[in-house]
Structure formats: structure tokens, C-alpha cells
Amino acid sequence: MNAPVQVPAQTRLRLAHGCLDHLAREAGVRILHLKGVSLHPSLAEGRSPSTDCDVLVEPAQVGLYCQVLAAHDWQQITTFEHGSVFTHAATFHHQVWGTVDVHRTFPGLEHDPAVTFERLWDAHEQVDLGGIACAAPDLTAQRLLLLVHAARDAMGRARHDVRVSWTEVDADGRARIDALAMELGAVVPLALVTDRPELAVGQPDEHLWRAVHRRANPTEVWMARLRDARGPRRRARILVEAVRVNRDHLGLRLGRVPTRQEVRREWWARWGRFVRR
Length: 277
Fold this sequence. Notes:
The chain has 14 helices and seven strands. By secondary structure, it is an alpha+beta fold. Helix 1 (about 10-25) crosses helix 3 (about 60-70), helix 9 packs parallel to helix 10 (about 205-215) and helix 11 packs antiparallel against helix 12 (about 230-245).
């Protein structure tokens, strides 16, 4: 019997991006390939390798694209609502191609998602991934996305990303990043990650981004969201969300679908942690 062929991880990821793009084109959906193997060479050199794919989908077609993935044996692991505090992405897994985070928004870009996608799409560049010319943001946008992501990065790439996307960039390049951040509503995370915290004062979601930037624990992040909330209705909604059990994460932790008893036990534990704060 022939031994299975071992494909290098980065090669597999490039092929996976090509597959994801092919499925999108067949469905008439536009996607932008983010980070990882789609990065501009000047940003990728020396960066620790990615283990999954990331794509940003045009907002109006997110539901359709998720249906297409499911129809081609991509299993949904987490939902948008429970994937993270930013509710920005759903995770899918394929036995051959691995994992993809399907973004409907990009955390830190706070302006209208549809307008943001169009702005990034209008300036996109082509990158060969798995033999397919895939759309990726241009260099200025890639720098901004890396910086905004670095403001909440827990994977240890933040130092590299800030260096190649900001520290080593000339004044004109930084001005373009600042202008794009203003246009897309990314002033707060950019200010924090580039050591200009005074620019974040009084801005929307200031305390949330300060919390995630300093790697605060989940309860502190929820308290920061509560502090940023405007109006009693928004505060009440956040309080409800704070104690609601994230079934996706609980299931990943347990390695199976949680029982009602386990969900109930987790609810009481979350409520206790929140009250103690």
C-alpha cells in the first residue's frame, strides 16, 4: 500500500486559499484573502507561519458563501455570534484543506462593513494562491490590518507585525496608514498598537480595545464593553450577553456537544465570575 503524500503546511494553505477562491467565484461571491500566505512578501518575511486561512467576504453574500462551504464538506466549528467578543468570524474545517475563518467584518474597522469591503476591494491586488489569482488588500491596507490585529494578538506575532508595518515604514507610508485608519474607523486600535494612546481618548470602544490590547481576562473585557456602551438599552444587552454561555467554546473545550446540565453549570459559573468583579 502506498504511503500518503505529506504536503508541506504552507503549500496546503496556498492550495486551500485557491479552493476557497474557486468556490467563491463559482457562487458569484467576492472575497479578499487576509494575512497568512496571502501577505505581501515584505510583511511575511520572518513572520511565524500561519496554520489556517482567513477570508473577508462581501457582507451581503456571507450567508450564501457559508452555504457553499457547507455544501462542499466544510464543517462549521463556531458561529459568528459566539466566535469571539467581536462576533466577526465563523470557523469552518475541511478534512483535506484545514481551517478557515470566514470574516463578515474585521475587528477594529468600525465603519459600515459594506463600505469598508468596497474600499478594500477597489484597491485590491492579485496574489497567486494555489495557481489561482486571488484578491488581497493592497500593501497599505495589509499593513493596517496587521496593526489592528496586533492590537489584540495573542499568538506572539504582534512585535513582528508592528515592526514591518509601522516601525520600518517611512513617514509617507505611515501617513497613508493613518488616513486609511481614519477612513475605515480604525483609529483606536492603531493608536494603541503604535504607542500613541492619547489619540484613542474619547473614541468609541476605547476601553474595549485598551482591555484586549493589555490581554485582559474575559470578565474585564466584558466590563470594558459595558463601560463603552451608550444608553441603558445597550448596557442591558451587554449584561445579558456577558452571562450567556458560549456553546461553541464550551463544546470545543469539552470536545463534544455540551449537555443541558453542563450548559447550566457553565451559566452559573459565568454569573459568579461576573458578580465577583
